[in-house]
Specification:
This protein has 526 residues and is an alpha/beta fold. The protein contains 20 helices and 19 strands. The protein has helices spanning 34-44, 55-63, 79-84, 108-113, 128-138, 151-165, 173-178, 180-187, 197-209, 226-232, 265-278, 281-291, 317-331, 350-363, 405-417, 427-440, 464-471, 476-479, 493-503, 515-522; strands at residues 13-14, 20-26, 46-52, 72-74, 91-96, 98-107, 142-143, 190-192, 221-225, 241-244, 252-253, 256-260, 294-295, 335-342, 382-388, 396-399, 447-454, 483-487, 507-509. Strands 6, 7, 8, 9, 10, 11 and 13 form a seven-stranded mixed β-sheet that branches. Strands 1, 2, 3, 4, 5 and 12 form a six-stranded mixed β-sheet that branches. A six-stranded mixed β-sheet has the order 16-15-14-17-18-19, with helices on both faces. It is globular, with a radius of gyration of 23 Å.
Length: 526
């Protein structure tokens, strides 16, 4: 199906000193290239002005005609762009700059426990089936980013599915159905998800390095870019990461710098100059040395990376969308989340309206683009609303079952609409109650998390240190649940950062973004 696109206003800006600026919508993964790009500007007179977005979300912005503010895009891969823009009408020119396959890293001490032999920092002769056997038989656990939010998770999902289907051709819908049971076994080992590859690695390493390490908090492995694993996974808590390059194949990111359609002569010239510089043997060697990615120019790197088998990518958009939908609805472990919601007096007016709107958007089945598939509450997911003011209110839990999900979503929307404001702010009492609810639910296969949204100073109930003391007494599987805090209004940024850091979560800033956008971003981490 062809995608109708208006011409993008691609006109590189030129400064008084003659420097041309290309405005680039980029994946956050390329942020580590900024020092190299600054040096490239000195050599070429071309500056790349990067604005970051998720690969799938950014792709859909461009295809929907919302990329007019940019001259180019630079994502880890254009595979999804090619699926939704079959006639390449959004693209003027694309050039691969560097390579990084999505592989698995496993702590060497755990690899030995699985009977795997480490050779030169790698685990050779293993397949996706071998990894799945380790999940089923030995309890291997790992982290992977969300395939609806991050290209590394997207690539891992496609890679595992294509390898298990083993057709030697691009995936078809029936191929996914044939390996669904095996994929479910594989994803039963996923103990951590994330909205970005960088945060995934931070959380994975933090769990291994934690003094509170336990079988529930530490993970054995992580699926991520080879470059991220090489740059971050050495000498943590006296352990190293060994990399698994599955013999049956992987999906590789090739980081194509892509000039968009409608490029002016000035933009084309600037693009050609910066690409020529990035592909020079000297810069390619620097990319390999500083970012741990593989160069696209032969012989530019000091090391010879292990060879990989490249798996065929699905040729149909519908196959990819069905696969991602199946992942959330049936394959991955379901989420159990307590939403701790400030309804104190300071939330009156626009703030409570924004909160109601943001949560209502999550409650409905999302028929939108692929990047939205993981944002609505999913089948099998357990959602608890815990409003608070002077004290935690009565919690209300909703389970989105495959049968009757429309009724559940309607009840959830109705409860959200009835949120009322008034009183003081006992946020930490409410967080403590949220962990109590997770403990009461018992230990099962759910991925646990807490989301705290507050707009003001905590002026009622326990303080932060008292909350930390309470968390210390929790069962390990409950204590490992992260708190994702939403910075909003006059809330204490320092305290919210401490709370998220202490629990392995992160802070989302809603002071500059729409609250609905923030809640959608959080969904990548649940």
């Amino acid at each position: 199906m062809a995608v109708a696109l208006g011409l993008l206003a691609s006109t590189a800006c030129t400064a008084e000193d003659g420097t041309a600026t290309l405005r680039v919508l980029a994946g956050s993964e390329v942020a580590d290239m900024e020092p190299l790009l600054a040096a490239a500007t000195e050599r070429t007179g071309v500056r790349l002005e990067l604005e970051y977005a998720g690969t799938l979300d950014g792709t859909e912005r461009v295809v929907a005609g919302r990329g007019a503010d940019f001259d180019a895009v630079w994502f880890p891969s254009n595979r999804y762009l090619h699926l939704v823009d079959e006639e390449r009408s959004a693209i003027h020119t694309e050039t691969s700059v560097m390579l990084s396959p999505v592989v698995m890293g496993v702590w060497e001490s755990r690899a030995e426990a699985f009977g795997w032999t480490v050779e030169d920092g790698a685990l050779p002769h293993l397949t996706w089936e071998d990894i799945t056997d380790a999940v089923v038989e030995d309890g291997l656990t790992y982290g992977m980013s969300s395939p609806a939010a991050s290209n590394s998770g997207f690539s891992a999902l496609v890679g595992a599915t294509a390898a298990m289907a083993d057709t030697g051709a691009a995936l078809e819908r029936e191929d996914v159905a044939d390996v669904e049971d095996r994929l479910r076994e594989f994803f039963s080992g996923q103990g951590l998800t994330a909205g970005s590859s960088g945060w995934l690695m931070d959380a994975f390493v933090a769990r291994r390095d934690s003094e509170a390490e336990s079988e529930h908090s530490a993970l054995d492995g992580v699926l991520n870019y080879e470059s991220v694993l090489l740059s971050r996974g050495t000498d943590v808590a006296g352990d190293d990461l060994a990399l698994v390059y599955p013999e049956d194949g992987v999906v590789t990111a090739d980081y194509p710098l892509t000039l968009l359609a409608g490029a002016s002569e000035g933009a084309v010239d600037a693009y050609e100059r910066i690409v020529a510089d990035l592909l020079s043997e000297e810069v390619q060697a620097e990319i390999a040395a500083t970012t741990f990615r593989r160069p696209v120019v032969a012989g530019a790197a000091d090391r010879d990376p292990p060879p990989v088998v490249e798996l065929p990518f699905p040729a149909q958009r519908e196959v990819v969308e069905d696969l991602v939908a199946t992942y959330f609805a049936e394959l991955r472990r379901p989420a159990r989340t307590v939403y701790v919601l400030d309804v104190s007096g300071s939330m009156a007016g626009d703030r409570i309206d924004d909160l109601r709107g943001a949560l209502t958007a999550l409650s409905g089945a999302d028929e939108g683009p692929l990047s939205s598939r993981g944002q609505a509450f999913q089948e099998r997911e357990e959602v608890t609303l815990l409003p608070f003011a002077d004290r935690p209110e009565e919690p209300r839990t909703f389970v989105v079952e495959p049968e009757g999900s429309e009724e559940v979503r309607a009840d959830l929307s109705e409860r959200i609409a009835r949120l009322e404001t008034g009183g003081e702010t006992a946020a930490y009492d409410a967080v403590d109650r949220a962990y109590g609810l997770l403990e009461e639910a018992g230990e099962d296969d759910h991925l646990l998390s807490v989301v705290l949204m507050t707009d003001g100073e905590v002026n009622q109930g326990m303080g932060l240190e008292e909350l930390f003391g309470s968390l210390d007494g929790l069962p390990a599987h409950v204590a490992a649940a992260p708190v994702f805090t939403v910075l909003f209004g006059e809330a204490d940024a320092g305290e919210l950062e401490r709370l998220s850091s202490r629990t392995g979560g992160r802070v989302f800033d809603a002071r500059e973004l729409e609250l609905e956008e923030v809640f959608r971003e959080i969904r990548g981490y649940q």
